[in-house]
User: Fold ABC transporter permease from Pseudomonas folii.
Amino acid sequence: MNIRQEYEITLEPFTQEDLARDIPLAQRIWQVSWVRKTVILILLAVLWEVAARIQNNDLLLPSFLQTAAAFYEGILSGELINKVWISLTVLIQGYVIGIVLAFALTTLAVSTQLGRDLLGTLTAMFNPLPAIALLPLALLWFGLGQNSLIFVLVHSVLWALALNTYAGFLGVSETQRMAGRNYGLKGLRFVWHILIPAALPSILAGLKIGWAFAWRTLIAAELVFGASSGKGGLGWYIFQNRNELYTDKVFAGLAAVILIGLLVENLLFANIERLTVKRWGMQR
Assistant:
C-alpha cells in the first residue's frame, strides 16, 4: 500500500474586496448608510412637492422647490447664515455648561450618599419642568440678553444628561470596578478611567438627548425672546417671516433647523460612536 505524501497548500489572505466581488453592485450601493438615508430624504421631498401642488395654496404650504429657493436666497444674502450663527453660538455655550454641571453632579453622586440623594432629588424636581417655562423667570433675572437663553438651555441639557450618565455608571460591572480599585484608582481618576469608558454608550445617548432638547428649546425660546427684544437667531427668523406671511421663508428656517440636526447626528455623534463604542465592540 502506497502512503500518500502529505503536502500543504498556501492560501491567499481573504480580503473584503474578495467578498465585495461576489455581491451585486446595486446591493453593495444599497448597503451604504448615507445612500439609504438620501433616498428617504428624496422620497420625503417628492411627497412634500406633491402635497403642496395638491393643496395649491402657497400661503399655507409652499412647495419644496419654493422652500429650496427661499433657503438658497437666505444663504446667498447671508441673512440665514447670520441667524444660524447666532443660534449656534448661544446653543454651544449652554450645552457645554450643561455638560460640565451634569458630570459634576454624577461624579458627586457616585462618590457619596449625599450626592446620590442630591441628584435624585434635583432630577425629580426639575426634570419634569419644561425648560421654556423658565424663560419668563430667566428674562426677569437676566434681562433681554443671551444669558436668559443660556439659562434655559442649561436646564434642558443638565437633567437628561445627568440621568443617562448616572444610569450608565450604575450599569458598570463589579469586575471593572474591582479592576480599577486594584490599580489604586479613586475619586476622579476612578470615574475618568473606569466609569466613563464603561458607561460611554449611555453617556453618548444622554449627549444626543441633551442636544435635541437644547436645540428645540432654543428655537422655541427665540420665538419669545426675539419677539421681546427684536433680535435673535433662527427662532426669530421664523417668527418674523411668519408675521410678514413669507411662508416659504418660514419653511426655509425650519429646514435649516432640520439640516443642522441631521448634520450633528450623522457627522458628529455618528463618528464619535464609530471611533469609540462601535470600534470597542460595545455597540452594534
